[in-house]
Specification:
There is one protein chain. This protein has 174 residues and is mainly alpha-helical. The protein folds into two domains: 132 residues, Vaccinia Virus protein VP39 (Rossmann fold, 3-Layer(aba) Sandwich); 35 residues, no CATH class. It has a three-stranded parallel β-sheet with strand order 2-1-3, with helices on one face. α2 packs across α5, α3 packs across α5 and α4 packs across α5.
């Protein structure tokens, strides 16, 4: 008997921990299909798309398929989305490197990223025939989004200091 494929909307997707876990669950057969994501963090999403959609290999073809052939078209496309460079507020992309902006545009297309969850249209559920909505936990202490609190890194340094080694496992000289 063929099992039903469960269509997933992955919100607050970050670099795709949920996506990775879902792939591992379905290791003997495809059970889950990530149909769309929703996350506005630019760098996390570029990483997500590199990990799960082979961004570096595919970005140029994806942009060409959507007729995003020059910087002006890419800027216009990106202006429709609230993208963040610090996970706290919307960022301006003026003056950013063209390759970076190409990767951002390709990320939105490849991951079917809805970007800003506060502006997400509920019709995505019906349109993509979503069966399951997931969300990832808040950013960990090591992430850029947690800058200023850095509890995770401080705890890691403290643990390593007690072990008399640094973050790379090298012995700390007194």
């Amino acid at each position: 008997m063929k099992s039903k494929i469960i269509n997933v909307l992955e919100t607050f997707s970050g670099i795709g921990a949920q996506h990775k876990a879902i792939k591992k669950i379905g290791i003997k057969g495809k059970i889950f299909n990530i149909k769309a994501t929703a996350d506005w963090d630019a760098r996390a999403n570029i990483a997500y798309t590199a990990i799960h959609h082979d961004l570096l290999k595919n970005f140029k073809q994806v942009l060409q398929s959507k007729k995003l052939d020059n910087e002006q078209q890419i800027d216009l496309f990106l202006s429709n989305y609230a993208i963040s460079l610090d996970s706290k507020k919307q960022s301006k992309l003026n003056g950013k490197d063209i390759i970076f902006k190409q990767h951002l545009a390709a990320w939105i297309i490849l991951a079917n990223n809805q970007v800003d969850i506060t502006k997400m249209n509920g019709n995505i559920i019906e349109k993509e025939k979503i069966d399951l909505v997931t969300y990832s936990f808040p950013c960990q202490g090591l992430s850029v989004a947690n800058m200023g609190r850095v509890n995770g890194i401080n705890k890691l340094i403290l643990v390593k200091a007690k072990r008399k080694t640094n973050l790379f496992g090298h012995r700390i000289k007194k």
